[in-house]
């Protein structure tokens, strides 16, 4: 780490900052647009207002969207953490015959274009006679998110010593006791991060919701339909509120993880 | 040991896929014994103790304790406890919680658990204040003691050690070896210990079992293994020894001269194949007028200081010979100087060559 | 314990495998089934034919497939070049700054991609954040780069950057510093070290990163819609139209199937070779 020349280090730091700046530039635009008073947006912005944000917060329509998005995200979080916990044990801990195959199969949905997956699910639900709703969106999200939670928890499972479980068992613990007293507490940081990821990825997901949520629009889906039909200040206002919500949740989650780490 | 063996392993075979880790192993362990299994990595010693405590299952063969089969009993119901190489102390629990873990599983009342944990801390010479400490706050040696306390907590009949000292530095390891031997004497429990260091085994054990490629090479006391190894493998495992090839009366070009006593000591049938072992500390540098049963001329090659001893290599013909003597008796000679070596008839031990696996 | 583990492994894999069978494998099989149905039918109870593939060739739908693959290839190449130095910095140079970058980039992943692309629209449009301020301060603006294929590639590079960056950083962190120092010590130059030491040793990360970005951008849809303004039709556009306005499921399925097959060919071989246990840091 110390053999890199000083000039190279400075250049790399500068490059890193530049990339971050570019990455966040569009959110800056959205943020400004959300507080611009003019109905037709042009930069530079001359008069500011909070009326669009206020309107977005109080609109009953928005409330419905948020409720739908929350229903989907919370259900996805709970289910994907449970699936991911057991999936991770099969992925990283237990030695069983088809483990290698299982590991590869789990990766496939992550390596799959989401829009195509959404459309494939749409005709599959149709073939089954299921009307798309927020519940089908949950299934669609799970296909993509449960493998991700599995990987996140598996990484944590890889990092602790298998002898811990063997020792507990050797001292007399049953399979369920080992799971409850040793495995679960040790995997907890991974489970919390996985839950955080699951919620936020589901909350922000657009390509899967687009095709599978039917008449129940999630926030990203509704924003998209508004974006393609023409600009209104409601779009940036809602968009930036959603971002602020995610950021707040992320901070709470990180604080929780820190707490967990200190306890261990 | 006969029929009264405490633990008996009979015809144990363990395969992983096509690889045979243990090949028809037999072993008896007496109650209260300190048995050490020594072998290079991959020799199957870890596999053997994992079968003993029940973490892995035998492919075939039986394990019995006091005459009752235990190989079908799951690990959590065997009266055995293992101290792992990594110690496997739970990082999310305090020292006290770690020691009480097996007691809690056995539904012991909280007060009794605490009393037992404190008693064990005293036994392992840890201050009682450690009860509430986190594992991460303990040093390597302290963790070692906590792991021992935890293993003793539920009073298992056999405690199994999987190289728990291998990660420690030399001095701490030496201290803990002695403490472990002392603990064995005080608790009277059966200890089965594995290590790849014969030196460590010699310090602590009642008996030593040398393992190689899934089989036992020799099971004997430290002294027997030291003076009468059964094979080149066991001999070389103890460190540096002189092993001279001997086929009938042919020394393979080694320019050695034998007295009548020496002739008698190495008298073997003409078709005998094997080696003559001579420990380096029993080889002497001879003064010009001095004699010995075996004598040998060579040239001094190098000198190595080994702390309290000093080691020399001497080139005799094509064969290097190792000589060791106390540091105070260092030689004044230089590399290339001619020297004369000798040893007594009593110093030789014959090792017959046996094709491996047919013993 | 081993027997128990085998059973437990199977049992704990069961829930997620059931999910993936029912809602990943089955839908793909249905897509494959519809791909060989006659045009514009809505059930699989017809005699199979290959009319969809004839339509794809005759009516030029294959062009959108090629276009998507081309754009995806370009995106992947650009991302690799952009991300390598940053990933290198994250793995070998930055200390705490790596954490900052990781958090900042992960945070962006949680922002809906359409909101971020919409943000680029506001940034790059005429009178947008860049052009508007430039005109106000310098008096002259510039033509908006929106609505063309380059801006679609830009959008995909932007959206899929994390999927290249993190695997690359992970891959580079697998390169031991000793190997690089030894090569330098033996007289290897900067480029030789890069091509003959660092890139081969970081290969698993490079492979995962490139595959992820290629596959995701080949199936992307939002970038073309929000930045390309429908001036460029990508494959997923055609698939969506066939399924929705066109009401031609067999055509949509056949188009999807072609993408799926290409993705599968690209992904399955490398994935089957990667040892996930070591890549993810297994201890024993």
TrEMBL record, chain A:
The keyword Membrane applies. The chain crosses the membrane at residues 12-35, 72-94, 106-125, 137-158, 178-203, 235-260. Pfam families: BPD_transp_1. Its main location: membrane. InterPro entries: Bact_Polyamine_Transport (IPR051789), MetI-like (IPR000515), MetI-like_sf (IPR035906). Keywords: Cell membrane, Membrane, Transmembrane, Transmembrane helix, Transport. One of its GO terms (biological process) is transmembrane transport. It comes from the Bacteria. The keyword Hydrolase does not apply. Belongs to the binding-protein-dependent transport system permease family. CysTW subfamily. This is Inner membrane ABC transporter permease protein YdcV. It comes from Paracoccus haematequi.
Automatic annotation (TrEMBL), chain B:
GO terms for molecular function: ATP binding; ATP hydrolysis activity; transmembrane transporter activity. The keyword Nucleotide-binding applies. PANTHER family: SPERMIDINE/PUTRESCINE IMPORT ATP-BINDING PROTEIN POTA, SPERMIDINE_PUTRESCINE IMPORT ATP-BINDING PROTEIN POTA. Its EC number is 3.6.3.31. The gene is potA_2. It comes from Paracoccus haematequi. GO terms for biological process: quaternary ammonium group transport. The keyword Transport applies. This is Spermidine/putrescine import ATP-binding protein PotA.
Automatic annotation (TrEMBL), chain C:
One of its GO terms (biological process) is transmembrane transport. It is found in: Cell membrane. PROSITE patterns: ABC_TM1. It is a multi-pass membrane protein. It holds the Pfam family BPD_transp_1. It comes from the Bacteria. One of its GO terms (cellular component) is plasma membrane. The chain crosses the membrane at residues 12-37, 69-87, 94-112, 147-166, 201-222, 254-274. Residues 65-270 form the ABC transmembrane type-1 domain. SUPFAM superfamilies: MetI-like (SSF161098). Its main location: membrane. Keywords: Cell membrane, Membrane, Transmembrane, Transmembrane helix, Transport. InterPro entries: MetI-like, MetI-like_sf. Belongs to the binding-protein-dependent transport system permease family. CysTW subfamily. PANTHER family: INNER MEMBRANE ABC TRANSPORTER PERMEASE PROTEIN YDCU-RELATED, INNER MEMBRANE ABC TRANSPORTER PERMEASE PROTEIN YDCU-RELATED-RELATED. This is Spermidine/putrescine transport system permease protein PotB. It comes from Paracoccus haematequi.
């Amino acid at each position: 780490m110390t053999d890199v020349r000083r000039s190279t280090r400075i250049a790399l730091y500068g490059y890193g900052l530049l990339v971050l700046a570019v990455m966040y530039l569009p959110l800056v635009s959205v943020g400004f647009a959300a507080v611009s008073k003019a109905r037709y947006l042009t930069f530079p912005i001359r008069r500011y207002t909070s009326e669009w944000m206020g309107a977005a917060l109080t609109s009953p329509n928005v409330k419905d969207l948020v409720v739908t998005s929350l229903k989907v995200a919370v259900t996805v979080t709970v289910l994907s953490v449970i699936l991911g916990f057991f999936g991770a044990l099969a992925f990283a801990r237990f030695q069983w015959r088809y483990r290698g195959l299982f590991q590869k199969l789990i990766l496939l949905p992550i390596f799959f274009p989401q829009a195509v997956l959404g459309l494939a699910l749409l005709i599959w639900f149709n073939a089954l006679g299921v009307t798309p709703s927020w519940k089908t969106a949950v299934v669609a999200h799970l296909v993509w998110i449960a493998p991700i939670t599995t990987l996140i928890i598996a990484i944590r499972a890889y990092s602790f010593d298998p002898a811990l479980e063997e020792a507990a068992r050797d001292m007399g613990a049953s399979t369920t006791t080992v799971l409850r007293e040793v495995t679960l507490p040790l995997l907890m940081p991974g489970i919390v991060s996985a839950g955080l990821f699951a919620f936020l990825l589901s909350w922000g997901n657009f390509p899967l919701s687009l095709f599978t949520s039917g008449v129940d629009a999630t926030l990203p889906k509704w924003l998209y339909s508004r974006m393609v039909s023409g600009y209104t200040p409601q779009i940036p206002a809602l968009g930036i509120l959603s971002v602020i919500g995610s950021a707040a949740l992320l901070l709470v989650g990180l604080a929780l993880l820190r707490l967990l780490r200190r306890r261990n | 040991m006969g029929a009264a063996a405490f633990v008996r392993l009979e015809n144990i075979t363990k395969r992983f896929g096509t690889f045979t880790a243990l090949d028809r192993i037999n072993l008896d362990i007496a109650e209260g014994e300190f048995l050490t299994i020594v072998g290079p990595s991959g020799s199957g010693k870890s596999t053997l103790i994992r079968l003993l405590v029940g973490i892995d299952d035998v492919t075939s063969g039986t394990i019995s304790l006091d005459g009752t089969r235990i190989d079908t009993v799951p690990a959590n119901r065997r009266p055995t406890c293992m101290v792992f190489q990594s110690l496997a102390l739970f990082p999310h629990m305090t020292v006290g919680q770690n020691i009480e873990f097996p007691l809690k599983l056995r539904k012991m009342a909280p007060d009794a658990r605490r009393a037992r944990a404190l008693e064990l801390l005293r036994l392992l010479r840890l201050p009682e204040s450690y009860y509430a400490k986190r594992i991460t706050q303990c040093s390597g040696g302290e963790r070692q003691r906590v792991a021992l306390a935890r293993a003793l907590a539920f009073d298992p009949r056999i405690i199994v050690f999987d190289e728990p000292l291998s990660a420690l530095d030399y001095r701490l390891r030496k201290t803990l070896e002695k403490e472990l031997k002392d603990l064995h004497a005080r608790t009277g429990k059966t200890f089965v210990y594995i290590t790849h260091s014969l030196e460590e085994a010699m310090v602590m054990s009642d008996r030593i079992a040398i393992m190689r490629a899934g089989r036992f090479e020799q099971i004997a006391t430290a002294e027997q293994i030291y003076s009468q190894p059964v094979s080149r493998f066991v001999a070389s495992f103890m460190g540096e020894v002189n092993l001279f090839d001997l086929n009938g009366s042919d020394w393979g070009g080694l320019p050695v001269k034998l007295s009548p006593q020496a002739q008698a000591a190495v008298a073997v049938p003409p078709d005998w194949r094997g080696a003559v072992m001579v420990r380096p500390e029993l080889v002497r540098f001879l003064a010009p007028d001095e004699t010995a049963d075996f004598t040998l001329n060579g040239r001094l090659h190098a000198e190595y200081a080994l702390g309290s001893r000093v080691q020399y290599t001497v080139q005799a013909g094509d064969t290097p010979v190792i000589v060791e003597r106390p540091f105070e008796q260092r030689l004044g000679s230089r590399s290339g100087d001619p020297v004369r070596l000798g040893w007594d008839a009593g110093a030789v031990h014959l090792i017959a060559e046996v094709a491996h696996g047919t013993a | 314990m081993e027997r128990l583990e085998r059973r437990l492994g199977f049992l704990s894999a069961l829930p997620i495998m059931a999910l993936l069978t029912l809602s990943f494998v089955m839908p793909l099989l249905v897509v494959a089934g519809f791909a060989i149905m006659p045009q514009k039918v809505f059930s699989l109870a017809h005699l199979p034919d290959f009319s969809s593939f004839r339509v794809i060739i005759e009516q030029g739908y294959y062009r959108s497939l090629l276009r998507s693959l081309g754009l995806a290839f370009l995106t992947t190449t650009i991302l690799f070049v952009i991300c390598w130095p940053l990933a290198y910095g994250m793995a070998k140079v930055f200390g705490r700054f790596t954490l900052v970058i990781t958090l900042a980039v992960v945070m962006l992943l949680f922002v809906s991609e359409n909101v971020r692309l919409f943000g680029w629209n506001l940034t790059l449009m005429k009178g947008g954040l860049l052009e508007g301020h430039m005109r106000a301060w310098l008096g002259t603006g510039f033509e908006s780069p929106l609505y063309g294929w380059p801006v679609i590639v830009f959008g995909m590079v932007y959206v899929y950057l994390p999927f290249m960056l993190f695997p690359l950083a992970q891959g580079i962190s697998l390169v031991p510093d000793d190997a690089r120092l030894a090569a330098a010590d033996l007289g290897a130059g900067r480029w030789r070290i890069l091509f003959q030491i660092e890139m081969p040793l970081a290969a698993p990360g490079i492979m995962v990163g490139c595959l992820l970005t290629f596959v995701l951008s080949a199936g992307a849809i939002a970038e073309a819609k929000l930045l390309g303004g429908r001036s460029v039709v990508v494959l997923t556009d055609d698939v969506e139209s066939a399924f929705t306005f066109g009401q031609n499921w067999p055509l949509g399925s056949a188009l999807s199937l072609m993408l799926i097959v290409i993705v599968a060919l690209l992904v399955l071989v490398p994935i089957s070779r990667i040892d996930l246990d070591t890549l993810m840091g297994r201890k024993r």
